[in-house]
């Protein structure tokens, strides 16, 4: 009799787990994501709002000798030194506007990093069920730094993966340092 009770309890427990996982999936399908949007040349990007520390106008930068071209320089953000990564150079696009770039400061594993962009957009809310993996025909350099897309009327929102961007900038930095060490 005890075994039957245990089996019934196990079945009820398993059924409860299935129901809760189904509810979780339904909640996830209806979840709304917020993105801070911006433009780099003709591309429209978004970063999850939770990863954005702040958005700033152009800041005076101090150049870094022997730094790779994607590192524009360093900015002093209320006493904290922050590396500025030029997304326009990283993506090898033309400079989208003649105006000075704007800064989106994101939180990285090693502290804040400023991403230089052409223009800041709005914060938009998207349903998580409209999120798609990057298409196969997307250029490799874009696929390398995006986690996915949302289709909007007349354009795509490219969801920027900030950790991938920072890793790519770091790899560029490391390879440039290695090249400069060999040249010396």
Blueprint of the fold:
Layout: H1 2-30, E1 32-40, E2 43-48, E3 52-56, E4 71-77, E5 80-86, H2 87-90, E6 102-108, E7 111-117, E8 119-127, E9 131-132, H3 140-143, E10 146-152, E11 155-160, H4 162-183
Parallel strand pairs: 2-11, 5-7
Antiparallel strand pairs: 1-2, 1-8, 3-6, 4-5, 6-7, 9-10, 10-11
Mass-distribution shape:
globular
| Sequence stretches where pLDDT stays below 50 over 5 or more residues | 1-28, 174-184
Q: Overall pLDDT, averaged?
A: 78
Radius of gyration: 22 Å
Terminal-residue CA separation: 81 Å
Element order: H for helix, E for strand: HEEEEEHEEEEHEEH
* Count of runs of 4 or more consecutive helical residues: 4
> Order of strands side by side in the largest beta sheet?
8-1-2-11-10-9
Structural class category: alpha+beta
- DSSP summary, beta strand count: 11
The amount of beta strand, in percent, is 35-45%
Q: How would a crystallographer describe the biggest sheet? A: 6 strands, mixed
Helix content: 25-40%
Describe this protein with a few key phrases.
184 residues, five-stranded mixed beta sheet, 32% helix, globular
What does this molecule look like?
This protein has helices spanning 2-30, 87-90, 140-143, 162-183; strands spanning 32-40, 43-48, 52-56, 71-77, 80-86, 102-108, 111-117, 119-127, 131-132, 146-152, 155-160. A hairpin with a 2-residue loop joins strand 10 and strand 11 (155-160). The chain contains 4 helices and 11 strands, in the order αβββββαββββαββα. The protein starts with a helix and ends with a helix. The strands form 2 sheets. A 6-stranded mixed beta sheet has the order 8-1-2-11-10-9. A 5-stranded mixed beta sheet has the order 3-6-7-5-4. The chain is globular. 24% of the residues are buried. The protein is α+β, with helices and mostly antiparallel strands and 184 residues long.
């Amino acid at each position: 009799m005890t075994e039957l009770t245990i089996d019934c309890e196990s079945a009820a427990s398993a059924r409860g787990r299935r129901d809760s996982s189904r509810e979780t999936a339904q909640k996830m399908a209806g979840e709304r994501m917020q993105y801070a949007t911006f433009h780099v040349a003709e591309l429209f990007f978004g970063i999850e709002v939770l990863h954005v520390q702040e958005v700033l106008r152009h800041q005076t930068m101090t150049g870094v000798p022997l730094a790779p071209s994607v590192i524009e320089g360093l900015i002093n953000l209320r006493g904290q030194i922050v590396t500025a990564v030029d997304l326009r150079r990283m993506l090898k696009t033309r400079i989208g506007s003649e105006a000075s770039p704007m800064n989106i400061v994101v939180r990285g594993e090693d502290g804040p990093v400023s991403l230089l962009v052409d223009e800041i957009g709005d914060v938009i809310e998207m349903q998580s069920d409209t999120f798609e993996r990057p298409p196969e025909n997307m250029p490799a350099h874009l696929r390398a730094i995006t986690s996915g897309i949302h289709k909007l009327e007349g354009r795509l929102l490219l969801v920027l993966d900030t950790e991938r961007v920072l890793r790519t900038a770091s790899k560029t930095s490391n390879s440039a340092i290695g090249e400069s060490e060999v040249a010396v």
